[in-house]
From TrEMBL:
Protein's UniProt name: 3-methyl-2-oxobutanoate hydroxymethyltransferase
Chain positions recorded as Mg(2+) binding sites: 44, 83, 114
Record's keyword terms, sorted: Cytoplasm, Magnesium, Metal-binding, Methyltransferase, Pantothenate biosynthesis, Transferase
Residues engaged in binding 3-methyl-2-oxobutanoate: 44-45, 83, 112
Cellular compartment(s): Cytoplasm
Known function: Catalyzes the reversible reaction in which hydroxymethyl group from 5,10-methylenetetrahydrofolate is transferred onto alpha-ketoisovalerate to form ketopantoate.
Reactions performed catalytically: (6R)-5,10-methylene-5,6,7,8-tetrahydrofolate + 3-methyl-2-oxobutanoate + H2O = 2-dehydropantoate + (6S)-5,6,7,8-tetrahydrofolate
GO molecular function: 3-methyl-2-oxobutanoate hydroxymethyltransferase activity; magnesium ion binding; methyltransferase activity
Cofactor annotation comment: Binds 1 Mg(2+) ion per subunit.
Active site: 181
Amino acid sequence: MKVTVSTLARLKADGQKITMLTCYDASFAALMDAAGVEILLIGDSLGMVVQGHDSTLPVSLDDMIYHTRAVARGAKNALVLADLPFGSYQTSPAQAFDSSVRLMAAGAHMVKLEGGTGMADTVRFLVERGVPVCAHIGLTPQSVNVFGGYKVQGKTEEGAAVQLAAARALADAGAALVLMEAVPAALARQVTEALSVPTIGIGAGVDVDGQVLVMHDMLGAFPGKKARFVKNFMQEAGSIAGAFEAYVKAVKTGAFPGEEHSF
Ligand code: KIV
Ligand code: NA
């Protein structure tokens, strides 16, 4: 059955975990889809894991469209989520809408954008015009130069309050999902309890409604630095299809992430 925003809401209501992986081409999309991964994210992480850049900043909207088309062709049931890349949505809500239209024409069912309370107006603008939105808070990699590195966010009491307020504002604006990257597990849990829409975590502990990992990380295929929250599912599974199945099972049962993957 096709995964839709209604499916995601039902999974949260039933207390079932949502599974997401990043995906950049049709073959991997078909394998992930067959393993039951509910959401395939064409992440702008492709700038690092596919293109070899040292950040996500150089990724263009055309790059995202190319990979979104490929993933959409390979996916059968999974919801296709595409990142709005750096510079394609920050100017204005209208710019965000124009960029989202191109991603949705390429096969995306939902778009993801980075930012806190300041992006709430943009989220509302998109949702009112037919574009479902996943809001990405916490460590937002497009802002790496503002943060001065890839650092855990929301660690101080003040920082946690900023993240909680952002999550509330984005959900109130109509975001269908709120994704948190590299935040303390206790904060992610608090956000998840505060919101009626599902939350997705990466480096956000186990008490969120779903998990995401970068495909190359969970297959042990990325030669760069391995973040604390990454688990290599290929080691035990022995095959790519098996690694995707093991990931789905580990997320669904709450076996992943463990304390060792959390902040
Ligand atoms: O681009 C990406 O892969 C992402 C995930 C890390 C959430 O945004
Ligand atoms: Na991203």
